[in-house]
Amino acid sequence: MIRGIHTLAALILGLGFLQFTKAFSQEPGAFKWKPGQVLHYQVQHVTEVQEKVGDSTTEFKNRLDLQKRWQVEKVTPNGIATLTLTIPTIKMETTSPKGETLSYDSTKPGEGSKELKAQLEKYTTGKIAVVFLDTQGRLRGVKESNFGAAEKYKVELPFSLVVPEGKISKDLAWVRDFTITLDPPQGTGEKFETTQRFECTDLQNQLTTIKITTQLKAAPANEADWIPLLPFLPEGEAVLDTQAGILKEAVLKTDRTIKGHQGEGSSYRFHSVFRETLSSVR
After folding, report:
1. Which of 90, 55, 54, 52 is nearest to 69 (CA)?
2. pLDDT tens string 221-245
3. Whole domain around residue 59: which residue ranges?
4. Would you give the distance in Å from CA 259 to the centre of its chain?
5. Are strands 90-95 and 81-86 parallel, antiparallel or unpaired?
6. Cis peptide before 185 (omega within 30 of 0)
7. From CA 93, how far away is CA 65, in angstroms rounded?
8. Distance between CA 65 and CA 36 in Å, rounded?
9. What is the pTM (predicted TM-score) of this model?
10. What b-and-e string marks burial along 215-229, b requiring 16 or more CB atoms within 10 Å of the CB?
11. For the domain that residue 199 is a member of, what is the CATH number?
12. CA-CA distance, 65 to 92, in Å (whole number)?
């Protein structure tokens, strides 16, 4: 569970090689992992879907709030860190197309929807994953993945972005290429080549702001084929504290409307806002 509950869906992306707009020296990246360090993040992910077909309009809304706890277990001499992810608390409120609202709050386990409790409480009872990351934020391996395939950590990066080697300067840009594979029930193995671009837009003291955009290299053949791809095409920005070597905040948004996916006059709007904010470091 990196970005939100939808990470549990069977949408597996293969991470490609990083390509940079300039050659970098063999220097560490901006992440500075420290053995024993514990990073707490507050995550909020709001998703709204509105679909219109003929005279009928249906809506779905979901809000997920959770705390993420990353503990740096150890760091090798070349900067590869072993990190353990746990979820101390989780809260969800969802409104179905029929207008029914369900909610669950792990801090109030005796209240709320029994259905959501059955789905969500397991995430707060143990390790979510143990991963290996380098100083560029790249996934170097997965030791343990208790909820879903390990491959998903290549999809939604543990800290929302990767960085180049060496110092980041204003206007510096770099990309990563990856392939979206739509497995059942979202598809039948269709693959879509995708590029994610990063650009440093601001440097203020030790804070570095990085713009993030994601786009397909080629559009799907049909409008309806866009729908399962939309959650993987966010844009937004991340802020790094380069002095401390940690992610301060990431805000990723998607707001796309697909027209004509179910014939003339039909439309499908997907609106998502994901915000992850550092709440404490120790």
Report:
1. 90
2. 899 999 999 999 999 999 999 999 9
3. 5-281
4. 26
5. unpaired
6. yes
7. 9
8. 26
9. 0.88
10. eeeeebeebebbbbb
11. 2.30.230
12. 6
